[in-house]
Amino acid sequence: MCFSAEADFVSGVVVGGVGVATLREAKGRSELPLALLPLAFAIHQVTEGFVWLSLEGKVSQEAGDAALYSYLFYAWALLPLFAPFAIYLVESSVWRRRCMAALMVIGAGVGAYLLEALLTNDVSARIVGHTIDYRGVGDSGDLVTVLYVLATCGTFLLSSQRHIRWFGVANVLAVVIIAREQSEGLTSLWCIWGAIVSVLIYFQLREWRRQEAQDDSGEPRAASVGAV
């Protein structure tokens, strides 16, 4: 099946439902940014659906441009800082938080660079096979991609929680496979994959609530899943 506007809309609705459920599981301000990620990914996919429609001539150029810049603002400028920040807030290990803080700095730098590119370069999108090729980063694309993956996926890999780590593993594998098979569609394909695997965040929050319920009931429980 080829990816399309319909595929983005369907994935956005499905992941959006998970995103709403994830928000309901969040407890306290420290968990809110993490709980927002699935819903943010869902909205992101719906936005790309309108990019598809614009490239197919089914919506106005103005609507297409608004969707394009909104999509790339989240993918390029916001996510490399927001994702590490969300994981940093829920991490209890001191040494892991220090490493995450360093990745947050890298993410902030990558986001700032890509935001400047978004505002000053000729940003474009075109359909390539079954995906969308986004252009506008410039000559430093390969280095920026490495730093981007380091900041976003690296923070998840550092987490002491199992489902959060698996989110990072799944995304690193996706980046490697996509970059080898179809590098032109890296942004588009990696983001839709990120949306799909963001359901792991829901399971992590559910695990935390289950552990709290056991504590409140006085029942003995095992150590935190994935904690080291």
Give the uncertain stretches in residue-range form: 220-228
- SSE arrangement, N to C: HHHHEEHHHH
SS field, number of helical segments: 8
Helix content: over 70%
Task: Report the mean per-residue pLDDT as an integer.
Answer: 86
Distance between the termini: 41 Å
Walk me through what this model shows:
This protein has 228 residues and is mainly α. The protein has a two-stranded antiparallel ribbon. A hairpin with a 2-residue loop joins strand 1 and strand 2. The protein starts with a helix and ends in an 11-residue tail after the last helix. The C terminus is likely disordered.
List the helices and strands and how they pair.
Elements lengths: L4 H21 L6 H24 L5 H30 L3 H27 L3 E5 L2 E5 L5 H18 L3 H20 L4 H12 L1 H19 L11
